[in-house]
Amino acid sequence: MVRPGWRASASLPGLRLSGNRDVNRHISCVAAACLVFILAGLNAASAAILMVSVGGQTVSYTTGQLLSRSDVTTITIDKDLSYPGSMTYTVVPLAAVIGPLGMKAADTLQVQALDGYVAELPGDSVLNVSRSKPIAYLAIESPASPWPNLPGQSSSAGPFVIVWTGPNAVRQQWPYQIASLTEAPPAVQRWPQLAVGPEIGTKDPIRHGQTLFVSYCFVCHQLSGAGASNIGPDLGLPMPATQYFQPAALAKLIRDPALVRDWPGRRMPPFPKSILSDRDISDIIAYLTYKAGGAGQ
């Protein structure tokens, strides 16, 4: 691609063509070669590299390598979470990328985005291939067909996005602008601050809130120093969020932060009821309230 305002020319800047036809031809060839080199460099710069650290090994995949796989296909997402309306992606099954490397279902796939966003995806979810459950795909942005810019932003969702198909796909995490995928133990094992005590049963709303917190809040917020992302404020330090927000106000903030307060550069999105029900938000607040009390820490 040539920058606007540039014009390809047979002559090099600062050189005057002589009357010798052979010399002119030589200079023209040099100019053409330089132009091809520039264009090739620009094209190469637009390609991306995905770093994958799974199963004790680290592998890098270029955009071209992923697009040339035999299992590459296209899917259309009717209600895309990154773009309004529907979106068609070129994809490969995520399980086919990380499974052969040795990804374990009991572990977590940590997804690092270019902007510091860090998602924690359960291993059993990203390895699933059954149509009875959501199936994860790695969407690849082709330099030849770039995606549109995200709404209100100056860049697309690329170079890589994780998208889902199947039942309840909307409730999964859809990280975009992905830079790397890394296998790791579950977040609760890496950060004991997230744990709940043994007195909290498996069906207790507090434990359910813990699961939801890791899935939806932990991608941007730390809790008492636990977490890999710091896009948003720590919800436990220096003062727990439940101590300076009334429960009703905190619930409204989680549902749609603009309903409570707004600020330039706000990045926290609203969570419609199709993603987080009222009960889900109540359980997240119950978990944060429990952690603010210091129990189980």
UniProtKB/TrEMBL annotation:
Residues 204-292 form the Cytochrome c domain. GO terms for molecular function: electron transfer activity; heme binding; metal ion binding. Keywords: Heme, Iron, Metal-binding. It comes from the Bacteria. This is Cytochrome c. It comes from Segnochrobactrum spirostomi.
